[in-house]
Amino acid sequence: MPKSSKPLTWVDQELTNDNLPKNIKLNIELLLGEEDLKPKRKGTELPKRSMNAFFIYRKALDKELKNRGYYDLRMREKVKLAGMLWKSENREVKEICQQLASKAKNLLEQELNSTTNYFTPTSQPESSFNDYVWYLMCTNQFSEESINEKKERLRTNAKASVKLDASDSSSSMDEENFDESFNWRRMYMKLSRPISFVAKDRGVLWLDTADGIVNTHHWKTLDCDESEYGKVVFLDYVWWFDVWGNIPNVLPGIYDVIWRFKVNPNFRLQNLQFVTRVLEVFNEKLELKHGEPIETQTTHLMNSKIFELIAEGGNWVEYCLPYQITIPEERVIDSVRIPHSVEYRLYNHEDIKRGLWIDYVRLRIHKDDDEEEELEDQHRHIN
């Protein structure tokens, strides 16, 4: 199919200013070859065919990833993954990528603007390919320290599980068995999920001990079928109110901060202060050499009338704080990647507080940061 000789105004401006998103450039390179990105002469830029090729390719990639079980990835991660896989030296991975690009090219030739039947897989997912994909996702988005810390925690939990099942003589968990059964997809899900269960992390002043014996007249840990974790914290009564926690390894993006709680309609709560801090995680050597890490803090004083409305309903609510937090791209200092964590806090040191259940704090991608919608808008703009 001959290329269009008429350059698009939007594409022309974006490429001239070098503002075309890197993921679009990357995928056009993968699909059409690097030569198609080079202007033939000054003043001519990327033709419409190349832009349509990208969107056809993106649809095919999305279908392929879903077929292989990657339901949890956002579009920006899928696009980044495409580049990482393409550059891989793994023969099996390269063959799969080449087949995918070839099918996308054929689809482009058949129908530039087709919106259905983009890709029908012909083979079952290969376990080695899947494991390699999740390994790449982990190592390219999270620091080695974070991965090792989470891996050690999974190993500890696995050993504890084996001890509980000691009646089974076949149960054993040595290092070799753990490494053989290690699942990189599970690791990625653990690292990338921005949620903190308060009953699990236990960042509550005057909370009972782990076995629920001491200080049960202030805060209690209760079993709860309505909680994903299975436990929540319950405030009986307290004067010095303080709840805090940390969500590590948060990926770049714009997030809403969500608190899930329930209020007893027989009691009133007021003047509770919500605090959210975004901070870089330095190790001691970096802090000594480069000073304090960058951090930002946002606060919100909740209106007592909102608590009253929540209490009247008598149900669990997800309360979205009236601001967003921005997690910037990671910096690299002295060849060390600097991850970001989000600290949260809810406190009040005045008056008696009673009748509050808290389940979790989580981060939700803000809809304005949805790259899928952004790219579709760009596609509509160039047509």
Automatic annotation (TrEMBL):
<dbReference type="InterPro" id="IPR025886">
    <property type="entry name" value="PP2-like"/>
</dbReference>
<dbReference type="InterPro" id="IPR036910">
    <property type="entry name" value="HMG_box_dom_sf"/>
</dbReference>
<keyword id="KW-0539">Nucleus</keyword>
<keyword id="KW-0238">DNA-binding</keyword>
<feature type="DNA-binding region" description="HMG box">
    <location>
        <begin position="47"/>
        <end position="116"/>
    </location>
</feature>
<dbReference type="Pfam" id="PF00505">
    <property type="entry name" value="HMG_box"/>
</dbReference>
<feature type="domain" description="HMG box">
    <location>
        <begin position="47"/>
        <end position="116"/>
    </location>
</feature>
<dbReference type="Pfam" id="PF14299">
    <property type="entry name" value="PP2"/>
</dbReference>
<dbReference type="GO" id="GO:0005634">
    <property type="term" value="C:nucleus"/>
</dbReference>
<dbReference type="GO" id="GO:0003677">
    <property type="term" value="F:DNA binding"/>
</dbReference>
<protein>
    <submittedName>
        <fullName>3447_t:CDS:1</fullName>
    </submittedName>
</protein>
<dbReference type="InterPro" id="IPR009071">
    <property type="entry name" value="HMG_box_dom"/>
</dbReference>
